[in-house]
Amino acid sequence: xxxxxxxxxxxxxxxxxxxxxxxxxxxxxxxxxxxxxxxxxxxxxxxxxxxxxxxxxxxxxxxxxxxxxxxxxxxxxxxxxxxxxxxxxxxxxxxxxxxxxxxxxxxxxxxxxxxxxxxxxxxxxxxxxxxxxxxxxxxxxxxxxxxxxxxxxxxxxxxxxxxxxxxxxxxxxxxxxxxxxxxxxxxxxxxxxxxxxxxxxxxxxxxxxxxxxxxxxxxxxxxxxxxxxxxxxxxxxxxxxxxxxxxxxxxxxxxxxxxxxxxxxxxxxxxxxxxxxxxxxxxxxxxxxxxxxxxxxxxxxxxxxxxxxxxxxxxxxxxxxxxxxxxxxxxxxxxxxxxxxxxxxxxxxxxxxx
Length: 354
Fold this sequence. Notes:
This protein is α/β, with parallel strands linked by helices. Helices cover 45% and strands 13% of the residues.
């Protein structure tokens, strides 16, 4: 249904969600200047002010962009308005005041609704004001590609530098809420390399790096592959550490071995799942915060569906999908995905000094 709706975008004339934030109101307070920002990037619309999006939008404001925002959540809209940020009631209103529109939304269906729904970004038909659309949502590659095709068939109301046709980039991120707050996200970008180069300043205002992945949809594909590797890695480390405990080897000892030998990985040396071994990670706070199990299920569902569509075997991905689905059904859906160590493998806490 989502893809069918997307294919019909060219016949739609309405769009939803709009956001704009005015950087000039913050430059004198926070010491930022917008003089370094190219004119074609000055007016940025941001749609989707959740845990990640709100922090990304704030970093753009700090960097001096004139931002306009939109979200369905009236409370978060009120908070931005009280900060002096321009808020809009629909995506279409955001598009009408923006050179670039960034979306950060929960799912493919939300993205399609924001672009193609009533009062959506494409409400005006094929004549658009924004020269660039950037979707940082984690969605399936095919929806990203269909949306890029639809936008490439539109024209600009006004020529922007050398751009006569609007462009769209898929640019999902790697990094937690903490990284979004600190502006240290990594963007995985698919689409036109020319558009990627032109937008790089935007990415570096919200993150530490942006990696060009190739054609439209490749950013979305890269994010799915990154997260399936992260899920399988976390389960492998958790399984090994829990087995070690059963065999009489402390997880602290095994972690030391892993981290100076061939088993070393992010799940062992940076995001260890054993409560008591590492400070500042979800396992140290009862698995609260971080990347929830339900979001991991969502991303693994995308990976499994993409693999099936491509005719590619992914047995570890399917097994990880089953494990995280079970964790969610058992009531651990909002816990960080590293909770598999305790709630699937029945691993034990260990004091730091063990």
